[in-house]
């Protein structure tokens, strides 16, 4: 774990769970000064890069599950973002990070995740021996009927299981999701198979440690073999349109449309874009 964690002032970064986790892990929590955008430049740059390289691909493809997006984003970070050489440092983000490490502080991930669990008080139903959370029912030990308990769970997980604690923090067992009127466990939803070629590729590359090739777009070829990268295309178009900045000049929807256009024209370069823009009767995005 790091010695310090530097965050902005979003509400979630001031939560009790965040403070508790940092305290228990020995991490100093630091928030950037309010109304001062300069200190946030590095992370904002990351957001911009992710928006261009990852989010635009998600938006231009089929709708997929949240779990699939999380899996694909993890693959994107490992396969693409952390491996790409920075033009100024001549190092990849991973190399830069590893170079700055002195002592690695290992943490128990299960213990760390427990700090972020949502905790709510409940009374175990005397008739059904269950607890109710957001219209979901979890069956617990019948011995706890009528007892006041604390339910802990990951609000971003699959919500199939919760942990039950006493008011004093003693672990009492777990509660399993079930249909109260049927008395059976809720069947797991069958996630639809993602059909987004870009996400399929980087996820498969991640799983096979950069050795397997999946069908669809070869993201590494797009980055390394196309002489004019997508980022340069966006920056040039923003300049031609008289906009300040590059990514910030366009909305997510506009970036999505630009990415589709870029993918359709492999031979696109700066001179072709400039000529097309000068010959266009309407110099705005549709």
How would you portray this structure in words?
By secondary structure, this protein is of the alpha+beta class. The chain has a domain at about 115-180. The protein has helices spanning about 15-25, 40-60, 65-80, 95-100, 110-115, 195-205, 220-225, 230-240, 250-265, 270-280; strands at about 5, 30, 120-125, 130-135, 135-140, 150-155, 160-165, 170-180. Strand 7 (about 160-165) and strand 8 (about 170-180) form a beta hairpin. The longest helix has 20 residues, at about 40-60. The chain is elongated and about 75 Å long.
Describe the secondary-structure layout.
Layout: E1 4-7, H1 16-25, E2 28-31, H2 41-60, H3 66-79, H4 93-100, H5 109-114, E3 118-123, E4 130-133, E5 136-139, E6 148-153, E7 161-165, E8 171-178, H6 197-207, H7 219-225, H8 230-240, H9 252-264, H10 270-279
Protein name: Integrase catalytic domain-containing protein
Organism: Escherichia coli
GO molecular function: nucleic acid binding
